[in-house]
Amino acid sequence: MPELPEVEITRRGIAGPLEGAIVELVQLGKPLRWPLGVDPRALVGTRLGTIGRRGKYLWLPLATPQGGSAGGLLVHLGMSGSLALLQTPLQSSSPPGPHDHFILVTNRGSLRLNDPRRFGAVVWSPSLHDDPAAKLLRRLGPEPFDAALTPEVFHAALQSRRTPIKAVLLGGEAVVGAGNIYACEALFQAGIHPALRADRISRPRATRLLQAVRSTLGRAMELGGSTLRDFTDVHGASGAFQAEAAVYGREGLPCGRCGTPIRRVLQAQRSTYFCAICQRR
DNA sequence: AGTTAAACCTGGTTGC
DNA sequence: TGCAACCAGGTTTAAC
After folding, report:
1. 3-state class of A198 per DSSP?
2. Cα A195 to chain center, whole Å?
3. What b/e readout covers A121-143, taking b as 16+ CB neighbours within 10 angstroms?
């Protein structure tokens, strides 16, 4: 999926068109990871508020016609999900595809979640601070661009973990947002070996890694994210970051910095790509 | 408690 | 060409 850059690009794509839109119909396809948790008919007539993001989750708040809270929808794109925004009238829009599993029809266009693997989810919650949303967001660490996430705070979070730094980045407790692609890329940029225990990372190297996470995620957003197979923005456009990746998906190809072939190893059942020369323990 | 495996799914690619 | 094996952006849950 979609890691943080792809989710943020999706948020930006739907925010303008859909904020203030009124829900006219909710259609469900095959089951996603978790049930919606509300009768879809109960959402008809509600109005979308300011669309937010927390980690790799989107939050679509809903208001009653009277302006009171109607809860909201917590959306996750899983491994293969993407949202499409169709601003054509419902009658003339293309019929839902076999992988369109959640469709939100509004007076300003339709939002479709296309997710072949169905690891994604759309869950109604009374608020972000109540279950089920609170439970799902509980373990998330700081946002990568939060000013409160200082190098000191980040280093302290690494100090309490003995697992490989790659796994810590994927875990999202020290900082959210980096998935398999961007964790590999950030570690390369910081010159850190992915198998290095997190608690063995010095303060200067932690500072460098935090900077690398931020610049990698930022650059990915500039390029429209990464499109390996499924991901596109809400208009169907592919991302371009994957062409700029230094290590991800480049097993056997020469490192752009030293020429040594990039290696692929498995860590916690996930492929890790790295340069054994440029990335040190 | 802290880490690691299994599970959830479909589909594209690779290799015999 | 057919078919099996393997691989894929994530995260929860169960099991050592």
Report:
1. helix
2. 23
3. bbbbbbebeeebbeebbeebbbb
Which position has the token pair 């599993």? Answer: A101
pLDDT at A90: 66
Give the bases of strand B that a protein CB approaches within 7 Å: 2-12
User: Is the C-beta atom of A79 closer than 7 angstroms to strand C?
Assistant: yes
Q: Are A6 and A241 in contact (CB under 8 A)?
A: no
A168/C16 CA-to-C1' distance in Å: 20
**How far from A17 is each of A3, A50, A137, A150, CA to CA, in Å?**
23, 11, 26, 35
The per-residue pLDDT for range A152-201, each reduced to its tens digit, is: 999 999 999 999 999 999 999 999 999 999 999 999 999 999 999 999 99
Would you say the C-beta of A252 is within 7 Å of strand B? no
pTM for the structure as a whole: 0.96
Query: Which one-letter DSSP state was computed for residue A141?
Result: -
- For residues A194 and A183, give the distance between their C-alpha atoms in angstroms, rounded to a whole number: 9
Q: Report the C-alpha gap between A172 and A245 in whole angstroms.
A: 21
In chain A, which residue ranges form alpha helices assigned H by DSSP?
Answer: 4-18, 133-137, 151-159, 165-171, 180-190, 203-222
Three-state secondary structure call for residue A102: strand
pLDDT tens digit sequence for A38-51: 999 999 999 999 99
- Give Cα A234 to chain centroid, integer Å: 14
